[in-house]
Amino acid sequence: MKRVNVLLDIILIGVGLYLTMTDPAAKTLGIILVLAGVTSRITGTVFSPTEPYDERQGIVKIRSGHIAYLVSIGYLFLILLLVNLSIIKDIQFALLLALGGQILFFPIVLIFINRRI
Q: Which residues are listed as membrane-spanning (predicted)?
């Protein structure tokens, strides 16, 4: 099952990169697919699918979810501030930055919390 997950993650990243580079209309979809593939791969390396679910995994996921939520609120405030100050002029780019940050905060915090516990 682990090989299937790795293969699906690579396919998500590959298709996302292909759409981002070739089709300007599907650039946003391509970036979302790349983010989904990277997030799935990071989460798959932190907790292996063959590893049985235990109490420690639940604690790590809950704690990292809380921290990621708090950090993402500050991140969204920062993106809104940059748009308000006209540092970021393109609204679609700002939304893409916000979405990318929201998607990637949880697995990044999951790595750090898993190493601490």
A: 67-87, 93-113
Q: Tell me, what's the pLDDT at 35?
A: 92
pTM score: 0.77
**Angstrom distance (rounded) from CA 83 to CA 91:** 8
CA distance 56 to 22: 43
Residues 6+ apart with CB under 8 A from 16: 29, 30, 31, 32, 33, 34, 35, 36, 37
Dihedral, CA of residue 90, residue 74, residue 111 and residue 13, to nearest 10: -20
